[in-house]
Write the structure tokens for this entry.
Amino acid sequence: MRPDLTTERTLRDLAEAGSPSVAIQPFLAERVVALRRRSRRRRRIGVSLALAGLVAGGVVAARRSGETRFYSVYEPSSSMAPTLTVGEHLLADRTLTPSRGDLVEVHGNYEGHVFTSVRRVIALPGDVIACPAGRDGHCHGWTRNGQVLSEPYIGRDPGSPPPPGMTVLPGFFIGGGDDIAPYAAVTVTPGHFFELGDNREFAVDSRMRGLAQLSGIDGVGVEVVGTDGRRRAIRGAPQHEVPGPGGTVDPPGELPTSRSQPVVTQPVG
């Protein structure tokens, strides 16, 4: 077994086992894993290009010679659970323009470190995103342009509030219920988008990193492939064309671990 894969599996297991019980940032191991992934994979030279004139500042990812339209992204963390869990794959389309609710593979730089992650598009240029405080001082739901978002895809453990004394960042859950620390309104600027992980207590996203760049989007998710090889729709995301029977899907940029299964392109019967 390759040493780097053994290290990655160990880091991921520690993150999974330790996040409910330790009073440190639960996304630390995810950041380490992401850095190792990024250092091993080949850098995409055909980065996404922001196209002037597209509604909401959408982008279309450029493809290099030899790359197909669809490709697979291996998920090493639980930051997108339950939509995309450890060991599963996201099938992504390099040619799509992202919409609100889409899952995207995005790369960027955070605190001097290059990262690659899968996140959900919550707001696009011109949108105002916030988690306003109610009468009790807590937020009870994110809003976009003043409308409360319905987010049935959010994953969390209501029985595991933050440890005593742990600082709760804006936009994070603050107890065992649905209360959230308020997040001040932000207007998404041209060329950017607001991203969130579905596992809000684990993910590193725009709450810490700030607005993400549309040009950093490598592809838009169209389906999830489970560890059993079966494909399913992405909950809460717009429907997109998917690879048909016998279709070609580029493999992930890194070798999957033994927890994952080969990606198939045949639809579920």
